[in-house]
Amino acid sequence: MIKILKFDEVDKKDIFSRATAKVDVEKTVSEIIADVIENKDAALKKYCEKFDGASLSSLKVSDEEINDAIKVVDQSLLAVIKRAADNIRAFHEKQVRTGFEFVNPDGGVVGQKITPIESVGVYVPGGTAAYPSTVLMDVIPAKIAGVKRIVMVTPSKGGVISPVILAAAKVAGVNEIYKIGGAQAVAALAYGTESVEKVDKIVGPGNAFVAEAKRQVFGKVAIDTIAGPSEILVVSDGKSNPSHIAADLLSQAEHDKMASAVLITDDCQFAEKVKDEIEKRIVSLKRRDIARASIDDNGKIIVAKDIKKAIEIANEIAPEHLELCLSEPFEYLKLVKNAGSVFLGRYTPEALGDYMAGPNHTLPTGGAAKFSSPLSVDDFIKKTQYVYYDESAENKVADSVALFAESEGLTAHAESVTVRRKKDE
Length: 425
Fold this sequence. Notes:
Number of domains: 3
Largest sheet: 6 strands, parallel
Strand order of the largest sheet: 1-11-10-9-12-13
Helix content: 40-55%
CATH class of the largest domain: Alpha Beta
């Protein structure tokens, strides 16, 4: 049962604590990565058989399999996927950067050019559920950025990937798909095998093994973030419908036993009503066992003195998803400093952002919203600076550069600018 905590009466550790992994996966992941580096496809096929029950002759998904998937997916669902893709595309197109160039006060030409990353690996979870929405969210920004090669990896139960995942990949524009998941898939993307050519960056959420694998290969390749359990934090006064708030909290609790569902309110009676509604609704959920563990272990209702204090607490928690279920949400949005994505008003459940609204749902977790951002087009580009000084401009600043360099004891730096003022002998 979810806990109700009065902010001014409890240990603050109870307010700000987060779920932590109960198993140490570092050694296991390290061994899997080493195995893939050494044995390549043979290791991948071994793990496919061990974890997915699939004895595969080929790891790559064929065009025929993708086309067959499109045919069997419910056409109404396919239309919704395409509509969601349009919304996601429209939002992320607004993020596209252009380079710039100007002449600085010394007369030098300086600028910045934007170049897409050449190849990206997208990890799509496929364990307890299939997530076509993740395919759209992670692939479409990469396509908009101009990434030429987008590789998707996802587990295949019995050698079969969910048709809706393949359909979403087709809609989003994935170039290659492989039937591999877990730490071994991350290793293949980072180091390459006979079948899987390595990539430059890996994005996408996964379980503790996937997150640890991304941490270990970082530096060999770039990564987006190391994602933790899903989180929702709802700030609401007593005027919201308790059933709506309970449903919103359970929408994230059903993701993972370690997911975090938190309500902060200024109304004690409302807190009790939401608690009761959670208990009523949880019994009918398809994933009620997962939601039950999440609510019992990590769920909280925090009672604050007022809504401004509630948002102050929310800023300290820095949640992945923040709902402001309030009458004037845009006024309170001004107070929000730390959140992955914010959902405004009483009719904007977080699930709208998961699927349809357009903003990305790959978000910072574990408090990382204090210093990082949602996945975006920026994650798939590189910014390269350039400088051009002609002889006149270089001569104008040579003494200044030399003085600066000599102050750091770098005389060769100084000479590299002053030598250009000497006539060839």
